[in-house]
Amino acid sequence: MTSNWGTTKKWLAWLLLSVAVTLGGCGYNTIQQQDEQVKAAWSEVLNQYQRRADLIPNLVNTVKGFAQQEVEVLTRVTEARARATSIQATPELINDPQAFSRFQQAQGELTSALSRLLVVVENYPQLKSDQNFRDLQAQLEGTENRIAVARKRYIETVQLYNTTIRQFPVNLTAMVFSYEPRENFSVENEAEISRPPAVDFGSSTPAPAPSRP
């Protein structure tokens, strides 16, 4: 009995070793590695977008203190932030084309609303010279740059992963273990979306503040 069990264990060990070698040769380990890289890159994208969302309430309140009449612009930023943060950005979102598209559109709308706000700020020299606003401006600039970097890394990792699981014989392994292509940011508008808003308020000739009624 003991001898038979010892023989069975040896056969199981050889079987497991054969399976491991087969999976490794068919790209299973590569898929695992690149899948983790995609998840890590996506997590960083979400972290940076959340960082921007956290900055916006203070930014809006600071601008409101100097430019209360810019209600429409401030409202658009607030509403765009609400839409962006209402989307539950889970790791599974990158497996859902429609949800990913909604997420990308919402973040793009928030970027546009922020850009418009920063253009309006040019009309308020006192606001531009306010230390609190300048601190927020520096944080926003840094965050927008980090968003661009995070998006670029995500695009690259997804492109590599999607290419890998479509290649033979790795595509067979991907099919067996149900690994599907991941969603990616739109290439055609990536340059425009990821361009940080103009936040340089160092001009020596600021525009005059509009007259108040």
Q: What features would you describe in this structure?
A:
The protein starts with a helix and ends in a 20-residue tail after the last helix. The chain has a domain at 46-193: LemA-like domain (de novo design (two linked rop proteins), Up-down Bundle). The chain is 73% helix and 0% strand. The chain is built from 8 helices and no strands. The radius of gyration is 25 Å and the shape is elongated. The protein has helices spanning 2-25, 28-66, 71-86, 97-121, 125-129, 131-166, 170-176, 190-193. The protein has 213 residues and is an all-alpha fold. α2 packs antiparallel against α3, α2 runs antiparallel to α6 and α3 runs antiparallel to α4 (97-121).
Summarize the structure.
With 213 residues, the chain is mainly α. Helices cover 73% and strands 0% of the residues.
Keywords for this entry:
about 210 residues, 8 helices, disordered C terminus
CATH architecture of one domain: Up-down Bundle
Proportion of helical residues: over 70%
Average residue-wise pLDDT: 81
What is the CATH superfamily of one domain? Answer: LemA-like domain
**Span between termini:** 99 Å
CATH topology label of one domain: de novo design (two linked rop proteins)
What is the H-and-E element order? HHHHHHHH
Number of helices: 8
Question: What amount of the residues lies in strands?
Answer: under 5%
Shape category? elongated
Strand tally: 0
Helix/strand layout:
Blueprint: H1 2-25, H2 28-66, H3 71-86, H4 97-121, H5 125-129, H6 131-166, H7 170-176, H8 190-193
Helix pairs in contact: 2-3, 2-6, 3-4
